[in-house]
Amino acid sequence: MAVQTVASTSNPAVDLGPAAALSCRECGHRVPLGPVFACEECFGPLEIAYDFSAYDTEELRRRIEAGPANIWRYAPLLPVPADVADKPNLNPGWTKLVKADNLARELGVTGGLFVKDDSGNPTHSFKDRVVAQALEAARAFGFTTLSCSSTGNLAGAVGAAAARAGFRSCVFIPHDLEQGKVVMAAVYGGELVGIEGNYDDVNRFCSELIGDPAGEGWGFVNVNLRPYYAEGSKTLAYEICEQLGWRLPDQIVVPIASGSQLTKIDKGLQELIKLGLVEDRPYVIFGAQAEGCSPVSTAFKAGHDVVRPQKPNTIAKSLAIGNPADGPYVLDIARRTGGAVEDVTDAEVVDAIKLLARTEGIFAETAGGVTVGVTRKLLKDGLLDPAKTTVVLNTGDGLKTLDAVAGTGLSATIRPTLDSFREAGLA
Ligand SMILES: *Cc1c(COP(=O)(O)O)cnc(C)c1O
Ligand SMILES: [Zn+2]
């Protein structure tokens, strides 16, 4: 694919708040803000560089705390225009940080265990956070169609955001996703296209479409708008710290699909430290995958710096990216913070979904089963410290992956009589 460059004159007045430029993560080369994602010098990924120099810590904290109960309370730290809260969007975020005492007891965690429950977002997954950022970028760059390659949740989030904001949407998914994800992506009225292949095939197709006249004027939230999209995951880090009383968690367990979310959670924590909003002390980041799609944990355990692509085969379809773009950066972060990347089997995923539901009343999708299952495994292996404050992410809603817990159902079927109830042994 050709690297797309944008002449700075084509976007003369893009106002995205404190976002100052795009900067290459590999070589540091800077380009003006635009719908570009790869460095023209070295093909490395571009990310948002900010100018936070004008912020006073206490004033910033007050401004955030006085902000709306959604991600826009952190607008001063995001690539969005100042009046973002007045625009038509889904306003995701500020989801619950649940103190999971029952689960903690069951797992033997004594230092405080929390579940950041992102199933509470408008389309019931964490993807609303990243799409909200991409939508603002799409508006700023004049796109009128929103698109994406998706493992399921992203398609729904894009469909809903486009509906609210008055954009056309056309999204692409592997043809064999869960029914809940398909319905959720289609119901908002945009176009939904199933591709005969896995996510990595879908992603490759979208990259081709961007370079073709057929995709002209399209904002692909996770391709040409990826630098903006990715920043949405920082809000998870901000919220967790603010909800802990402006404290860093000691340990955090994050699911990995492309690895973008994990790398941006780290970026968000680093920013809070630099801005003086939290104390500067160590934290540990753990990555979680399903065994049937575990390219990053495989590389971590082998001590490799490169991530070898895999062909996914797991019920955790939202995480089924066999060739994760941010894999090497995830390895760096896990190693730098003293964490690890671990994986669990599909059976362990199902077990963990039921464990979380039974102990905390939270019904997670398979990705939540992955993080809870990995947390249990890391504790067993002595890699996660039970005496420290730990946050586990649940990034999606179990109603979208009902098949994973098929067989869970009625305790009994009885006639509407007391005799029948007693006979069933339930009295
Ligand atoms: C997309 C997704 C993730 C993480 O995706 P990254 O590509 O690693 O940012 C995690 N959980 C769910 C449920 C998702 O849909
Ligand atoms: Zn570069």
Bound molecules: pyridoxal-5'-phosphate, zinc ion
Tell me the CATH architecture of one domain.
Answer: 3-Layer(aba) Sandwich
Shape: globular
- Got a strand count? 13
CATH topology of one domain: Rossmann fold
Provide structural commentary:
This protein is an alpha/beta fold and 427 residues long. The chain has a domain at 97-124 and 231-405: Rossmann fold (3-Layer(aba) Sandwich). It is built from 14 helices and 13 strands. The strands form 3 sheets. It has a 6-stranded mixed β-sheet with strand order 4-5-13-10-11-12, sandwiched between helices. Strand 7 (168-174), helix 5 (179-186) and strand 8 (191-195) form a beta-alpha-beta unit. The longest helix has 15 residues, at 127-141. Residues 1-11 have low confidence and may be disordered. Bound molecules: pyridoxal-5'-phosphate (PLP) and zinc ion. Zinc ion (ZN) binds at residues 24, 26-27, 29, 39, 41-42, 44.
